[in-house]
Design brief:
CATH superfamily of the largest domain: EAL domain
CATH architecture of the largest domain: Alpha-Beta Barrel
Strand content: 25-35%
CATH topology of the largest domain: TIM Barrel
CATH class of the largest domain: Alpha Beta
Shape: elongated
Strand order of the largest sheet: 1-2-4-5-6-7-8-9
Largest sheet: 8 strands, mixed, barrel
Radius of gyration: 28 Å
Distance between the termini: 73 Å
Helix content: 40-55%
Length: about 525
């Protein structure tokens, strides 16, 4: 057949749109752990009345240059969303539909409105739609970031396609609100024969997981690719080994065949799950070490040996502000690095925690630094094996309290009349301070929140939405607002509105957030 590319121009593409000659084909994405289809990528074809099925490479460049990619993109998005709805109505499990965005589409002023209108028209859950962008679209990072955040705010997922082919800055990448990266097929094709490609793929997977991205491998065509990707904990894969892009009806017919590919050619399921568990454990350990190292407060652990409390871990910026180092503390008991009277006072709290008290909280001062600590015993087989503690610097608060005491009347007025709930949480969502007003509104004392995850007190139906707002605040370093239900000590729920204000450290990253909460019924 002759190459029909010379016949492709603005007029013929317009005619194709008018005559409904474009078709969508769908290529499955497969979970490399379960082997099940989790999504599909929508890929356009032109069913030319004379030349048959034309791949996108023969007409998309002309559509881009002529601007017709905009109506074509609208058609693709709407058709793909209607397909999701049709599959859902037929009782198929929810599939995440991936749609590619072109540069022109991405930077069109009304993209967000177009996407919102199509989602409303088709009635699908925004979480079932995934927009695939490329690194080349990051030419204007500020505009790109804004567009992506608006899409994310709608609930749409974002995937970075052809990862590794472009030249995107890792600095920008860590701040982009994306959910997945797709490793370009050029790296996958030879990853089982070429050590350089293998190393690059492994590195991309590790880096993506460290940034909390999922990873999709494109171009999986060989049986060996599956085992390699599973061993290196890639999340999903797509490629001809599973299926080439096919029409919607054939996609459904082939689902049971695709679902067996991992079982037939992949690692045994128990090996895959073991690898993932080891990865989760390793990441948890790494996260703990990084948290301890960067902690503005202090984290410690101790055990009881021969009647003595010996520290097995102690680190964090607060420790250094006290004039101490881990070497002063680890492997020692308190009287070896603290004055006797201070050591004796703190030993009483250590003893209380070791005896089984679920939470022991106390304030102390070392070398002019005031701090508050919370201790929690860890048990195994009914016996306490260690106690873990966390401390935060309250020196500034103490200074503020002293200043307030010098204006007692003003202090009393503020203390007696404040109605807002105020919390200080770290970037992990752990409460480090809660105002006394919590007891009046919710029944819990301030100490009842210290060291707890803030999301544990939020209604389960609201928790994920609030957590996403929190993640957005960490990423954007901008004030966020949310309405949700807060747990009362009597088991009821209180409708509140909250405002989160990020607190930035020296590296301009969010270290803490101040959460101000109001009872909606009173305002």
């Amino acid at each position: 057949m002759d190459d029909p590319s010379h016949l492709v121009n603005e007029h013929t593409i317009k005619q194709a749109l008018k005559s409904n000659e474009f078709r969508l084909y769908y290529q499955p994405k497969v979970d490399l752990t379960t082997g099940k289809i989790t999504g599909a990528e929508a890929l356009i074809r032109w069913e030319h009345p004379e030349y048959g099925l034309m791949p996108p490479g023969q007409f998309i460049p002309e559509a881009e240059s002529s601007g017709l990619i905009i109506p074509i993109g609208d058609w693709v998005l709407k058709t793909a969303c209607y397909q999701v709805r049709e599959w859902r109505e037929k009782g198929l499990f929810p599939i995440i539909m991936s749609v590619n965005l072109s540069v022109r589409q991405f930077y069109q002023p009304d993209l967000i409105d177009r996407v919102r209108d199509i989602l409303e028209e088709t009635g699908i859950d925004p979480g079932c739609l995934e927009m695939e962008i490329t690194e080349s679209m990051m030419m204007d990072i500020d505009v790109a970031n804004e567009v992506l955040r608006e899409l994310k705010a709608m609930g749409v997922q974002i995937s970075l396609d052809d990862f590794g082919k472009g030249y995107s800055s890792l600095h920008y990448l860590k701040n982009l609100p994306i959910d997945k990266i797709k490793i370009d097929q050029s790296f996958i094709q030879n990853c089982t024969q070429d050590n350089n490609d293998a190393t690059l793929v492994k590195t991309m997977i590790v880096m993506a997981h460290q940034l909390n991205f999922e990873v999709v491998a494109e171009g999986v065509e060989q049986k060996g690719h599956v085992a390699f990707l599973q061993r290196n904990l890639c999340n999903e894969a797509q490629g001809f080994l599973f299926s080439k892009p096919v029409p919607a009806q054939e996609f459904v017919r082939k689902m049971h065949i695709v679902d067996r590919v991992i079982e037939e050619h992949g690692l045994p399921s128990n090996v895959t799950y073991k690898n993932w568990m080891e990865e989760e454990l390793q990441m948890a350990r790494q996260e703990l070490l990084e948290t301890v190292r960067k902690q503005q407060g202090m984290i410690l652990k101790f055990v009881k040996r021969d009647g003595k409390f010996i520290h097995t871990l102690c680190d964090g910026e607060l420790l250094y502000r006290m004039g101490l180092t881990p070497e002063h503390v680890v492997g020692r008991e308190m009287k070896e690095f603290l004055p006797n009277e201070v050591a004796e006072e703190k030993t009483a709290y250590y003893e209380k925690a070791w005896s089984g008290s679920k939470r022991v909280t106390y304030e102390a001062e070392v070398n002019g630094i005031h701090y508050i600590s919370s201790l929690r015993p860890i048990s195994r087989g009914g016996e306490i094996i260690e106690v873990i503690g966390s401390s935060v610097d309250i020196t500034d608060r103490k200074k503020t309290e002293e200043a307030l005491r010098k204006s007692e009347s003003k202090y009393r007025f503020i203390a007696d009349n404040i109605t807002d709930l105020i919390k200080v949480i770290n970037r992990k969502g752990i409460v480090e301070y809660a105002s006394p007003s919590h007891e009046k509104m919710l029944g819990y004392t301030s100490d009842g929140y210290f060291g707890e995850q803030i999301f544990d007190f939020i209604h389960p139906e609201d928790s994920e939405r609030v957590y996403n707002k929190f993640k957005e605040m960490v990423a954007t370093k901008q004030v966020q607002r949310a309405n949700y239900r807060y747990k009362h000590i009597d088991g009821s729920w209180v409708d509140v509105e909250a405002r989160g204000t990020p607190v930035l450290g020296q590296n301009n990253e969010m270290t803490h957030a101040v959460i101000v909460v109001r009872d909606q019924a009173k305002f």
